[in-house]
Write a structure and sequence with these properties.
2 copies of one chain form a homodimer.
Chain A (H helix, E strand, L loop, with lengths): L8 H12 L1 H9 L4 H8 L4 E2 H7 L5 H13 L3 E6 L5 E6 L1 H4 L2 H16 L2
Antiparallel strand pairs in A: 1-3, 2-3
Helix pairs in contact in A: 1-2
The structure holds a DNA duplex (30 and 30 nucleotides).
DNA sequence: TAAGGTACTATCAAAAATGTAAGTAATGAG
DNA sequence: CTCATTACTTACATTTTTGATAGTACCTTA
C-alpha cells in the first residue's frame, strides 16, 4: 500500500481487467491481506481504531491506518472522529460495505470446503 | 509469485489469519491479479495454454505459467499434457475449482453494485 | 536444411506491498 | 511540570509480486 504508478504495465493490466469484469473489480477492492479481515469484524458493529488493532493479530498501526484509509476511499467504511482528548475514532461499514456479507459467506464456505479436502 | 520467505513477519501474518478464518484462507488462494480471471474462463471449459494467453489481455507467459502452477498446486486446475509435437497442454477446473462459481457470482454482484454507486 | 509452432524456463529489473522504529498533538490526571 | 492515553504520521528497509526479454526442446512441414 503505497502510491501506485499510473504508468506501469501492472497498473494498466489491473485497470483493463477490472474495467470489464466486476468480479475482478471487486477483488481489487477487497483483495489483499487485511481488507476482508477488517470488514469481517466490522460486520458485527462499530469499532475503534485501537479495538481493531487488538483484534487483528500483529497488524502494525501503519498498516491499519493505510487499510482503513483505503477502505474509506472506496466507501466501504465510514470514519467518525469525536473531538476528545485522547482522541476517539470509530469505524463502521457503509451500506455497501454491509453488502459484502454474502461475498464473505461464500468465501467462507468455499474456504472451509477446500481446507477439508486436504 | 516467487518463493516466499517462511521466516518473514508477512508470512507469519498471512498464516495466522488464514488459519483461523476460512474466508481469508480462500482469499489467499484466489486473490491476486490473475487467479479469478483464469478461473472465470475455465468455468466455461478446458483451455489450452495459448488460448488462455489470448484471452487474458497482456499477461506474460511467465506470469501465466506461474499462476497456473500455483493453481495446480492448490488443486484448483488440472493440467493435462498430450505427448505431441508441438506440445499441447490443456487446463481445466477440478471439482473444487468448479465450486468457486458461487463465490465468483457474489463477487460479480457486489462489484456491479459498487460500480453503479459511483 | 531451414523455418515454424507450442509451451514453456531463465535472468534480470522494476514496482508494489508490508514491516520496523521512532515521533507527534492535545489534554487531563497526579 | 510530567506522564499517560489515543490515533495517528514519517522515514526507511525488506519482502513479494510482476514485468521485459531472451532463450529452449521437439518434431513437422516446406
Amino acid at each position: 500500500m503505497s502510491k501506485i504508478k499510473e504508468t506501469s504495465t501492472n497498473f494498466a493490466n489491473k485497470k483493463a481487467l477490472s474495467d470489464e469484469c466486476p468480479e475482478l473489480y471487486a477483488s481489487n477492492i477487497i483483495g489483499g491481506q487485511w481488507p476482508l479481515a477488517i470488514c469481517g469484524y466490522l460486520l458485527n458493529g462499530k469499532l475503534r481504531f485501537g479495538e481493531l488493532k487488538k483484534k487483528l493479530p500483529n497488524i502494525t498501526e501503519r498498516m491499519l491506518t493505510l487499510q482503513l484509509r483505503r477502505l474509506e476511499k472506496d466507501r466501504i467504511v465510514k470514519r467518525t472522529v469525536y473531538a476528545q482528548v485522547p482522541p476517539r475514532v470509530e469505524y463502521e461499514l457503509t451500506p455497501i460495505g454491509q453488502k459484502l456479507k454474502p461475498v464473505i459467506e461464500e468465501l467462507e464456505k468455499w474456504g472451509t470446503l477446500h481446507k477439508q479436502s486436504l
